[in-house]
C-alpha cells in the first residue's frame, strides 16, 4: 500500500492543500438524506447542507443515475455548439422563474453568477457604478468580492474593483442617497446569509424596485443561497418583487458545481464578451434537470415553509439568556447570540449536529429541505442542551 493510500486524510490535506479554510476536526465520508457520516461511522444531523447546496438531501439516486448516463453519452459541450440537455434545462429554468426573466447564462458557481451579472449590468446600462449592501456577501472573485461587505475578505487583495458603493441593508432612504446618475445596478440579497440571516422587508424591496424603474437602474438579486426552495418558495423573490437579473447556484444541480444568471429583456450583452468553458456542460445540466424534478415533484419549497415555521417557532420558545434573537425564512434560520457563536457551533458538532456560523455571533441552520420532523426535533433537543 502506498503512502498516499495509508496516510490519514487530515494529514494529507494539511500537507498538500493551501490552508484557506478554518478546518473542523472530522472527516466526512458519506451522506444520506439529512444525515452525514464521518470516517469513524458517527452519524450527524446535517443543518449546514454544504452551505446551502444539498437542498434535495444527500445520496439521491435520481441525480446519480442522470450523471452516469449523461457522462457515458456526452459530458462536455462548449457553448458554441447546441446541445439538447442544455436546451431543456434553459427552457425548464425560464419556465420556473419569475415571469419577467427570459434568458439564462450558465456558469459554474455563485461567485461566477455574480461576476456575470455585474458585467451584464454594466454592458446593458452603459454605466459603471454598482450599489451593494452593507453586510452583503456575493462571493470572493474580484467583482463579487468588491460587492461583498467586509474588510476581512477584501484587505489581503486590495485594491478592489472600482465603481462599487455600499449602503445599509433594509434602509431605503440611505440607499436612495447613494444612487447617482452613474448607477448601473443595485445588487441585494433578499435574506443576507453570511451577514447574519437577516430578512429584508417587502416594503424595502418594493421601494427599491420602484426606484430602479424610475431611474433606469437594473436590479440584481443574489439568490445563490436562497434559491430552489430554501425560503419556502422556489425563489425567495416570489415573496418580494421581481429583479432584472437573478443569480443562482449552490443547490441548482444537486451537488454538482453549477451557476446561472437569469435575465430580463433589459439585459443585452455583446457576443463573445462573456463566456465559460464549462458553463452549461451537459453533465451539470443533466444533474440540474434531475434535481429540479425532485424539488418540484416532492414540493420541497412547500415543505421548507412548513418545517421552517415549526423550527423557528420551537427555537423562539427556548428560554435562554444567551439568545438575542431568532430569525429566518423557511429553512434558512439564524440564532443570534449575545456572545461568540463559534464555541457553540463546535459543541453542536460534538453532540451530532452540524451547523454554520453567519458572522461572529450567529448560528446558521440550513438543513436539507428533505429533513424530517423527527430529525428537526432531535436537532432541537441538542440545541436546547447547548444553549440553555
How would you concisely characterize the structure shown here?
By secondary structure, this protein is of the alpha/beta class. It contains 14 helices and 17 strands. The protein folds into two domains: 26-56 and 299-387, Aspartate Aminotransferase, domain 1, CATH 3.90.1150; 61-297, Aspartate Aminotransferase, domain 2 (3-Layer(aba) Sandwich), CATH 3.40.640.
What labels describe this entry?
Aspartate Aminotransferase, domain 2, 17 strands, 14 helices, 388 residues, 7-stranded mixed β-sheet, Aspartate Aminotransferase, domain 1, 2 domains, single chain, 4-stranded mixed β-sheet, alpha/beta
Descriptive overview:
- The structure is a single chain.
- The N and C termini lie far apart (49 Å).
- With 388 residues, the chain is of the alpha/beta class.
- The relative contact order is 0.17.
- The chain folds into two domains: 26-56 and 299-387, Aspartate Aminotransferase, domain 1, CATH 3.90.1150; 61-297, 3-Layer(aba) Sandwich (Aspartate Aminotransferase, domain 2), CATH 3.40.640.
- It is built from 14 helices and 17 strands.
- The protein has helices at 3-6, 9-16, 49-52, 61-73, 84-96, 110-125, 142-147, 151-154, 172-178, 202-215, 282-297, 300-316, 342-350, 373-387, and strands spanning 28-32, 35-38, 43-46, 101-107, 129-133, 164-167, 183-188, 191-192, 198-199, 218-222, 245-248, 259-264, 323-329, 332-337, 353-354, 356-357, 362-365.
- A hairpin with a 2-residue loop joins β1 and β2 (35-38).
Amino acid at each position: 500500500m502506498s503512502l498516499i493510500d495509508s496516510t490519514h486524510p487530515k494529514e494529507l490535506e494539511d500537507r498538500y492543500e493551501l490552508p484557506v479554510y478554518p478546518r473542523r476536526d472530522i472527516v466526512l465520508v458519506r451522506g444520506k438524506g439529512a444525515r452525514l457520516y464521518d470516517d469513524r461511522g458517527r452519524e450527524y444531523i446535517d443543518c449546514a447542507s454544504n452551505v446551502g447546496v444539498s437542498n434535495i438531501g444527500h445520496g439521491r439516486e435520481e441525480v446519480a443515475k442522470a450523471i452516469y448516463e449523461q457522462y457515458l453519452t456526452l459530458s462536455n459541450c462548449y457553448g458554441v455548439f447546441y446541445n439538447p440537455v442544455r436546451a431543456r434545462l434553459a427552457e425548464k429554468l425560464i419556465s420556473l422563474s419569475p415571469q419577467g426573466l427570459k434568458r439564462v447564462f450558465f456558469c459554474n458557481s455563485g461567485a461566477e453568477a455574480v461576476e456575470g451579472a455585474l458585467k451584464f449590468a454594466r454592458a446593458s446600462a452603459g454605466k459603471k457604478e454598482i450599489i451593494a449592501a452593507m453586510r452583503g456577501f456575493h462571493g470572493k472573485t474580484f467583482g463579487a468580492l468588491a460587492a461583498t461587505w467586509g474588510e476581512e475578505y477584501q484587505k489581503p487583495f486590495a485594491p478592489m474593483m472600482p465603481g462599487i458603493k455600499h449602503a445599509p441593508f433594509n434602509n431605503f432612504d440611505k440607499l436612495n442617497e447613494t444612487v447617482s446618475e452613474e448607477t448601473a445596478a443595485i445588487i441585494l440579497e433578499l435574506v443576507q446569509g453570511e451577514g447574519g440571516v437577516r430578512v429584508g422587508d417587502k416594503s424595502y424591496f418594493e421601494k427599491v424596485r420602484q426606484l430602479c424603474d424610475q431611474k433606469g437602474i437594473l436590479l440584481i438579486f443574489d439568490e445563490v443561497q436562497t434559491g430552489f426552495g430554501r425560503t419556502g418558495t422556489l425563489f425567495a423573490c416570489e415573496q418580494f418583487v421581481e429583479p432584472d437579473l437573478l443569480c443562482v447556484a449552490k443547490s441548482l444541480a444537486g451537488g454538482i458545481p453549477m451557476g446561472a444568471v437569469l435575465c430580463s429583456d433589459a439585459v443585452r450583452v455583446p457576443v463573445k464578451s462573456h463566456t465559460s468553458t464549462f458553463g452549461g456542460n451537459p453533465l451539470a445540466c443533466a444533474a440540474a434537470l434531475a434535481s429540479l424534478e425532485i424539488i418540484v415533484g416532492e414540493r420541497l419549497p412547500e415543505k421548507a415553509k412548513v418545517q421552517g415555521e415549526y423550527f423557528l417557532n420551537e427555537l423562539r420558545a427556548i428560554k435562554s439568556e444567551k439568545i438575542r434573537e431568532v430569525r429566518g425564512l423557511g429553512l434558512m434560520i439564524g440564532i443570534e447570540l449575545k456572545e461568540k457563536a463559534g464555541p457553540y457551533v463546535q459543541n453542536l458538532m460534538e453532540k451530532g449536529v452540524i451547523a454554520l456560523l453567519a458572522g461572529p455571533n450567529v448560528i446558521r441552520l440550513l438543513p436539507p429541505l428533505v429533513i424530517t420532523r423527527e430529525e428537526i426535533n432531535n436537532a432541537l433537543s441538542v440545541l436546547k442542551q447547548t444553549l440553555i
